């Protein structure tokens, strides 16, 4: 009797975990992208701005920390300088995450810029726009990066310069070669976001997606076949333009990011996107669904039916939403059936998944 109950419970749990209404479509669509999902069946851990829970956002230290923690991907956000260099930073302006206010030679370069992306209304108020500077003048002046949260450690602030995309690629290639992660089928990759695409195109006449493609080509990482060998790559954006551009150029996987301030047509998105990166609320409240911790997520089921992977954002151990405990909260996402976590604390997310019973079973099955 007890055994039977256990079997029933397991079946119930498995059913909640991965409910792909149409296995056949799922198998075919992403079949040519070996690293589309973690081969051991557990969700991917994608380090948002690197391990920025501990280190300054997008510093080489944050990327290396996440790497040594065992992350599957580091996640650069791309801006462009005046001279066309891909500059890794979340914001289009520099005040929040750099020491630029200390560099008084730039005092008269403050500006006000207002524009909208499909992520937010951006208002750089009395701030320093990345695109008004050349890469070299920022580096020569001693620009350094900082952690964005007052509540996190600032011990490592103002030590590391920002990175170009090229620096991040070279760092990851070096780590993958010199410090390979044991027992992993794929190398650690980069999950790259194009930011403020329309703003750069309309206001500054520069196509961030095109520069990104050319940079990947320079490092011979511009197709799935090449990326699989050296450095797995995903391309993500809130704006569809750069995803459509990538789909027209290459077979690298694309991910449409989603906030809760728009209506989305999942059928249309699945025509150009291998996955979606929704705000975490989509797992519970999409399309009028009532918040429920225990029921399967209709949003995730619909995405899976369209053969799209689901990587919600962003998991923060110090800003919990559904629980008072980071392990319990990570398990809630897992139970909903996510295929990856954007997280700022990769060590803890990885440990939760490593020791979770459901994932242990999946790993055993895949061996
Ligand atoms: C922004 O999102 C909406 C809703 O999906 C879409 O209709 C629109 O084309 C998007 N704009 C860009 C620039 O991607």
Index terms:
alpha/beta, two-stranded antiparallel sheet, 12 strands, globular, disordered N terminus, binds 2-acetamido-2-deoxy-beta-D-glucopyranose, PLC-like_Pdiesterase_TIM-brl, glycerol metabolism, signal, glycerophosphodiester phosphodiesterase activity
Give an account of the 3D structure:
By secondary structure, the chain is an alpha/beta fold. The protein has 15 helices and 12 strands. The longest helix has 16 residues, at 2-17. The protein is globular. 2-acetamido-2-deoxy-beta-D-glucopyranose is lined by residues 118, 198, 239-241, 262, 264. Keywords: Glycerol metabolism, Hydrolase, Signal. Residues 43-353 form the GP-PDE domain. Belongs to the glycerophosphoryl diester phosphodiesterase family. Residues 1-17 form the signal peptide.
Q: What's the CATH architecture?
A: Alpha-Beta Barrel
CATH superfamily: Phosphatidylinositol (PI) phosphodiesterase
Average pLDDT rating: 91
- Structural class comes to alpha/beta
The helix content is 25-40%
Count all strands and give the number: 12
Write the layout of secondary structure elements.
Blueprint: H1 2-17, H2 23-29, E1 44-48, H3 60-69, E2 73-75, E3 77-80, E4 86-88, E5 111-116, E6 121-127, H4 135-141, H5 165-178, E7 189-194, H6 197-204, H7 208-218, H8 224-230, E8 233-237, H9 240-249, E9 254-258, H10 266-269, E10 275-278, H11 282-285, H12 298-305, E11 309-310, H13 326-336, E12 340-343, H14 346-355, H15 357-366
Parallel strand pairs: 1-2, 1-12, 2-7, 3-7, 7-8, 8-9, 9-10, 10-11
Antiparallel strand pairs: 3-4, 5-6
Helix pairs in contact: 3-5, 7-9, 13-14
């Amino acid at each position: 009797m007890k055994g039977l109950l256990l079997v029933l419970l397991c079946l119930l749990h498995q059913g909640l975990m991965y409910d792909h209404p149409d296995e056949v479509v799922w198998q075919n669509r992403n079949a040519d992208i070996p690293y589309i999902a973690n081969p051991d069946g557990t969700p991917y851990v994608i380090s948002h701005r690197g391990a920025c829970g501990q280190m300054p956002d997008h510093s080489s230290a944050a990327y290396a920390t996440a790497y040594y923690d065992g992350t599957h991907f580091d996640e650069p956000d791309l801006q462009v300088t005046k001279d066309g260099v891909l500059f890794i930073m979340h914001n289009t302006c520099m005040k929040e995450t750099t020491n630029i206010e200390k560099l008084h030679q730039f005092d008269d370069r403050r500006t006000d810029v207002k524009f909208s992306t499909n992520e937010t209304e951006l208002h750089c108020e009395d701030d320093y726009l990345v695109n008004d500077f050349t890469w070299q003048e920022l580096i020569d002046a001693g620009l350094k990066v900082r952690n964005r949260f007052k509540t996190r450690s600032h011990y490592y602030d103002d030590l590391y310069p920002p990175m170009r995309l090229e620096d991040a690629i070279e760092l990851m290639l070096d780590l993958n070669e010199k410090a390979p992660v044991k027992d992993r089928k794929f190398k650690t990759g980069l999950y790259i976001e194009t930011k403020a695409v329309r703003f750069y195109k309309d206001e500054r006449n520069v196509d961030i997606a095109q520069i990104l493609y050319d940079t990947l080509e320079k490092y011979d990482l511009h197709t799935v076949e090449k990326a699989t060998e050296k450095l797995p790559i995903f391309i993500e954006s809130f704006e569809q333009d750069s995803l459509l551009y990538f789909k027209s150029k290459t077979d690298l996987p694309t991910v449409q990011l989603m906030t809760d301030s728009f209506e989305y047509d999942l059928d249309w998105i699945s025509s150009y996107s291998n996955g979606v990166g929704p705000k975490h609320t989509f797992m519970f409240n999409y399309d009028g669904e009532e918040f429920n911790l225990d029921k399967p997520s209709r949003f995730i089921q619909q995405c899976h039916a369209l053969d799209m992977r689901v990587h919600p954002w962003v998991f923060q151990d110090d800003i919990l939403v559904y629980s008072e405990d980071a392990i319990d909260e990570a398990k809630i996402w897992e139970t909903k059936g996510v295929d990856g976590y954007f997280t700022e604390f990769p060590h803890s997310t990885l440990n939760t998944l490593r020791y979770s019973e459901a994932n242990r079973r999946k790993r055993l099955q895949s061996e």
